[in-house]
Design goal:
- The protein is an alpha+beta fold.
- Helix content is about 15%, strand content about 45%.
- It has helices at about 15-25, 80-85, 145-160, 210-215; strands spanning about 5-10, 30, 40-45, 50-55, 70-75, 90-100, 105-110, 115-120, 135-145, 160-165, 175-180, 180-190, 200-205, 220-230, 235-240, 245-250.
- Helix 1 packs antiparallel against helix 4 (about 210-215).
- The longest helix has 12 residues, at about 15-25.
- It starts with a strand and ends with a strand.
- About 35% of the residues are buried.
- This is Glyoxalase.
- Keywords: Dioxygenase, Oxidoreductase.
Length: about 250
């Protein structure tokens, strides 16, 4: 499991609105997690839990931290990996701590400031869900501060390897990366108009045009018109009604 994305979390300003939005767009079911002392909603695709939803921490907006999706990457020894984040040029923003009966997590950033979370689970991993299954996260994309520096950082921490690289002309190289031989995402040096590096997550839907209609009807802003990518899939990128950036991927228009 080391180096595998295993969880996703949306921190937002309006949980009820976000729950209604994503259950409609992606087709997830939602239920309260029953966590003492905090509101936390679980999104599921069928019997598989995919993501969590929570209100943004106090003070986040004042610090100009916008609503955002956060990805959790599994590690074998979270304390060891968190220590290595700093030596590899990243930063630990929340030191490893326990989630009772679930595991340990830490929130970190890469050398250019893209945020993600480390996670070490208690017990056995959940049942496997195919990467392109409906409602799962089919792709993980890093708009990096610098492609080569970022790839070295993540490869050293998680063992990710380079897969196919695509020359995007003036936009530079798009480097697909793999976990244990399976391509799971891509990275590229961010365009100048993107203010800061970030991770973007692509949720699987059946057909991109219908999903775009649902998203826009729900108040999303379309950032990238539907585009066909190598392999024949279609993608689109958005900000949700509260301002979090997300993307969709589908096998057809």
């Amino acid at each position: 499991m080391h180096g595998k994305f295993v969880w996703y979390e949306l921190m937002t300003t309006d949980m009820k609105a976000a729950e209604a939005f994503y259950t409609d767009i992606v087709g997830w079911s939602a239920r309260d997690a029953g966590m003492a002392g905090m509101d936390y909603t679980l999104f599921s695709a069928g019997d598989h839990q995919i993501a969590g939803l929570m209100t943004m921490p106090d003070g986040a907006l004042e610090m100009k931290v916008p609503p955002a999706w956060l990805g959790y990457i599994a590690v074998e020894d979270i304390d060891e990996v968190a220590a290595r984040v700093g030596t590899e040029g990243g930063k630990v923003h929340r030191a490893p701590e326990d989630i009772p009966n679930i595991g340990r997590f830490a929130i970190v950033t890469d050398p250019h400031g893209a945020a993600f979370s480390l996670f070490q689970a208690n017990g056995e991993p959940p049942p496997h869900l195919e990467q392109m299954a409906p409602g799962n996260v089919g792709w993980h994309e890093l708009m990096a501060g610098d492609l080569e520096t970022a790839f070295s950082f993540y490869s050293n921490l998680f063992g990710w390897t380079k897969d196919q690289a695509m020359d995007m002309g003036d936009m530079g190289v798009y480097q697909i990366f793999a976990h244990q031989g399976q391509p799971i995402g891509g990275m590229m040096t961010k365009p100048k108009e993107v203010p800061s590096p970030f991770w973007l997550y692509y949720f699987n839907v059946d057909a991109i045009d219908a999903a775009i209609d649902r998203a826009q009807s729900g108040g999303a802003k379309l950032l990238l018109e539907p585009m066909e990518v190598p392999g024949g899939a279609w993608i689109a990128q958005f900000t949700d009604p509260q301002g979090a950036v997300f993307a969709l991927v589908a096998p057809k228009r």
